[in-house]
Amino acid sequence: MNNFDVTVIGGGPAGLAAAIKACDEGARVLLIEREERLGGMLKQCIHDGFGLSRFGERLAGPEYVERFMDKLSEKTVDVRLLTFVTRIEKTAEGFCVVTVSRDGLERISTKTIVLATGCRERTAKQVFIHGTRPAGVFTAGTAQHFTNRLGVMPTKKCVILGSGDIGLIMARRLTLEGAKVLGVYEINPTPSGLTRNIHQCLHDYDIPLYLSHTVTRVFGADRLEAVEICEVDESYKPIESTKVRVDCDALIVSVGLIPENELAESVGVELDSHTKGPVCDCQLMTSVDGIFSCGNALHVNDLVDFVSASGELAGLSAAHYAKKAQCKVNIKIGNEFLYLVPQQLDLNADNSRVTFYFRSKAVREKSLLRLTVDGQEVFKRVYPFLRPPEMQQLVLNMDKFAVQNGSDVRFSIEVAE
Ligand SMILES: Cc1cc2nc3c(=O)[nH]c(=O)nc-3n(C[C@H](O)[C@H](O)[C@H](O)COP(=O)(O)OP(=O)(O)OC[C@H]3O[C@@H](n4cnc5c(N)ncnc54)[C@H](O)[C@@H]3O)c2cc1C
Fold first, then answer.
1. According to CATH, where is 2.60.40 located in the chain?
2. What's the mean pLDDT in 161-169?
3. What is the 40 CA–ligand 1 centroid distance (Å)?
4. In angstroms, what is the span from residue 101 Cα to ligand 1's centroid?
5. CATH of domain 3-120+258-326
């Protein structure tokens, strides 16, 4: 099957929650993940503290997502792994999602899309550090991936730039694994991470935190040998007289996350300049009807419980939207009409008093207006005459006529006997 009500892009905690919820609402759901396992970033977050508000327990990241993966396995959700969404196109029925996988290029049609693509880290390049480009400059997430998933220590002695939560967590993690973390250097006068992480990850392990400090240069040819650190003034300008050289074999950069929204942008979704995620309504629908956003793709969350909650809302909203789209029935008219308004019937709405407006194309004398549903006449009325300038109004209880999804609903005008 290649035709879905809801296609969720991204199999992290947000995408998992969205897929489960949309399936519970009766939607045909596809979940696409570019990696070989579901779980998103939480696969590498092996420390505990996840799910306190949702489950009332201190779970590790993989344990938290495992609960959602277990639930997902009970659902009829089509899951495609190692599949990368490269493009989204608008179509008459909704959207076409273009994917690349080992099977090649595929085009999937879907009524709605939930963007759960998460976020990515800012890199050293984006904070303009001068010097050479040796090995040993990692984002905190890359260091986390090496340490927790590949079992490879990326450093013996390092400096951490930025006091974001991932950097703080990695300061503790690397210390526990035997590395020496010389300090966490933060350009702002206040820390960026959660207070609990400052205590549990730095203070408890005697790792110093230097506020209003930054790394201004890296040294080393093949491998990093040292970094230059400066205090900054109130306008964040390095104070030359304070510069010191610190010997280390790695610089770990934890300077913020950016929602991943290239796909959203490519299909015209409006982004908020503050969150860098889509502008959305209370159902998490973006500026493009039928496209929803959740989790860290929408805005960077501090707790995964919020991520899951937003995934559930996006999944629910997308399923409702798809169902609604599914229940629109086109009302057909014969050539005798100039037009008829409205042109569609929403089967989810109250149709007990639908007002139709129509004009005939030509001047007609005694005419019979007929309404058929699936070939059966359900209504007729004789008009003594019909003229294009004179709009006709007709109020009908359409709920009486057993119109169903896919029904042929047709108005015609013929000569009355
Ligand atoms: C490097 C890093 C480390 C983190 N470490 C911690 C931590 O230690 N503790 C903590 O509380 N929080 C941490 N977080 C935050 C945590 O990631 C979020 O709370 C949570 O994982 C966000 O869930 P999500 O589903 O929105 O995104 P993610 O978990 O990032 O999942 C997004 C998924 O979308 C997939 N995807 C993206 N684009 C495509 C595409 N085009 N096609 C197919 N699939 C796609 C990705 O492969 C990924 O699996 C970290 C975040 C990052 C970026």
1. 329-415
2. 92
3. 5
4. 20
5. 3.50.50.60
E strand map for 10-77: 29-32
Query: Mean pLDDT across the stretch 88-96?
Result: 92
What pLDDT shows up at residue 275? 87
329-415 belongs to CATH 2.60.40: yes
AA letter at 82: L
Q: Is the pLDDT of residue 126 over 70?
A: no
- Mean residue pLDDT of the chain comes to 93
Structure tokens at 86: 């490269």
The β-bridge relationship of strands 3-9 and 367-373 is unpaired
Query: Which residue spans of the chain are classified as CATH 3.50.50.60?
Result: 3-120+258-326, 123-255
User: CB pairs under 8 A, 24+ apart, for 41-46?
Assistant: 41/12, 41/118, 41/141, 41/296, 42/12, 42/13, 42/304, 43/149, 44/141, 44/144, 44/145, 44/148, 44/149, 45/144, 45/148, 45/169, 46/148
**Rounded CA separation 376/348 (Å):** 22
What pLDDT is stored for residue 124 in this prediction? 64
CB of 51 shorter than 6 A to ligand 1? no
Ligand 1 site, residue 148, Cβ cutoff 6 A: no
Whether ligand 1 lies within 6 angstroms of the CB of 14 is answered as yes
Distance CA 14, CA 36 (A): 17
pTM score of the predicted model: 0.80
* Cα 304 to ligand 1 centroid, rounded to whole Å: 10
| pLDDT for position 209 | 97
Cα 52-57-60 angle, rounded to 5 deg: 85
- Averaged pLDDT for residues 82-100: 95
Q: Domain 123-255 classified CATH 3.50.50.60?
A: yes
Pair of tokens at residue 215? 């790394």
pLDDT digits (tens, 9 = 90+) for 365-376: 999 999 999 999
* pLDDT tens string 229-255: 999 999 999 999 999 999 999 999 998
The closest residue, in CA terms, to atom 45 on ligand 1 is: 10
Give the pLDDT confidence score for residue 113 in this predicted structure: 98
Ligand 1 centroid distance, CA of 286 (Å): 20
Cα of 267 vs centre of ligand 1, distance in Å, is 22
Q: List, for residues 246-288, the tens digit of each pLDDT value.
A: 999 999 999 888 899 999 999 999 999 888 999 989 889 999 9
**Nearest protein Cα to ligand 1, atom 50:** 41
For the CA of 50, the closest atom of ligand 1 is 11
